[in-house]
Amino acid sequence: MNLGFSIKEGLKGLKRARMATAITITSVTVALMMIGLFIIVSVNIDHWVGEKRKNIEIEAFFEPVLNNSTAKRLVNKIRQMDGVERVDYISKEDAALRFKKEFGRDVVEVLGTNPLPPSCVIHLKSTHRNALAIANLSHKIQKLDGITEVVYAQGFLQLIDRYVTIIYLIIGGLGLLLLIVAIILIHNSIRLIIYARREIIEIMELVGAKKSFIRRPFLVEGIFYGIMGGILADAFIFALIQIVRRWLYSGVIEAPEIYGLILGLGIFIGFVSSQISLNKHLNKLI
Fold it and tell me: How many whole angstroms separate alpha carbon 126 and alpha carbon 54?
C-alpha cells in the first residue's frame, strides 16, 4: 500500500509542476541521446578499425639460399609463436608467379635468373593486431636464423592507434560530462519540488510519517524523469539511425543493446540524482 501511495504521489508531483517536468525530461532526453550517439559512434569506429586491422599482415623474407624444406621449418617455428593465427609460405617459384601477375613480366626472362627470396605472410589473431603486439612479434621473427627482413604497415598501425585513442578519450569525456549534466538537472528539479512542498512535508512529519515514506514519492519522480528521458532518447536514436542508413550510409552498426543501456542509464541517473537531492535538501526539513 505504501509503495502504491508513493507512486501515485510521485506522479501527482509531476503534474503539479508541468513546466519544470517538461524541461527536465527534455534536458535528460538530450543528454541521454548524446551519450547514446557517442556510444554508437564508438561501436562503429571500433568496427571500422577492426576491419582495417584484419588486413594487416607481417611478411618475413628468408635468405635466398634457403631451400624449401629449411624455409618450411622456419615457417613452423613462426606458426608456434604467440599471436599467430596462420602462416602462408611463399616459395621462390610462388614469388616469381606473383611478380609476373603484378608486373606482367617473367622475372627469369627479365633478369636471366630468379633472385626473389622465399618468404611467408603471417596472419595475426585479433588480440595481437595492435602496434605494440605486432612490433614485439616482428622483433622475435627477425631474430630467427635465416630471416633477412620483416615488414609490415608500421606507420599505418601507429596512426590508427594514436587517433583512435584520442577519439575514445574525447567521446568518453563528453559522455561523462553529459552524465553529470543530467544528474544535476534532475537534482535541481527535485530540490525545487521539495522546496515547493515543504509545508506538506512538515505536516507529514508532524503526523508521524517516517522519513522513508516521505522520501519515496520524490524518488518516484526522479526515476520517472530518467525512464521518460531514456525512452525518448531511444526513440530519437532509433529514428536517426534509420535515416542515416537510408540516406547516408547503409553500413551503420546499430548495436541493439544500446537501447536497454540508455534506459537503464536513465533510471540510474534518476535514482542517484534524486538520492543526492533528498539527502542534501530534504534532511534540512525533517
Answer: 8
Answer yes or no: are the C-beta atoms of 13 and 216 closer than 8 Å: no
Q: What is the pLDDT of residues 260-277, one digit of tens each?
A: 999 998 888 888 887 877
Integer Cα distance of 50 and 68 in angstroms: 34
The answer to whether residues 171 and 41 touch, using CB atoms and an 8 Å cutoff, is: yes
The C-alpha atoms of residue 247 and residue 239 are separated, in whole angstroms, by 12
Where in the chain are the domains?
Answer: 2-51+165-284, 57-152
Characterise 208 by phi-psi region: left (phi > 0), alpha (psi -120 to 50), beta (else).
left
Is pLDDT above 50 for 1?
A: no
Distance CA 131, CA 83 (A): 13
CA distance 233 to 25: 10
- For residues 188-214, one letter each, b for 16 or more C-beta atoms within 10 angstroms of the residue's C-beta and e for the rest, the string is ebbbebbeebeeebeebeeeeeeeeeb
The model's pLDDT over 22-80, given as tens digits with 9 standing for 90+, comes to: 777 887 888 888 888 888 888 888 888 878 778 888 999 998 888 888 888 899 999 99
DSSP character string of 24-65:
HHHHHHHHHHHHHHHHHHHHHHHHHHHHHHHT-EEEEEEPTT
Summary mean pLDDT of the chain: 81
**Which amino acid makes up residue 195?**
Y
- What are the residue ranges of helices labelled H in the chain? 2-16, 18-54, 68-79, 92-103, 107-111, 131-142, 154-196, 198-206, 211-247, 257-281
Q: What is 57-152's CATH number, 3.90.1300.10, 3.40.50.1170, 3.30.70.3040, 3.40.920.10? A: 3.30.70.3040
Query: pTM of this prediction?
Result: 0.68
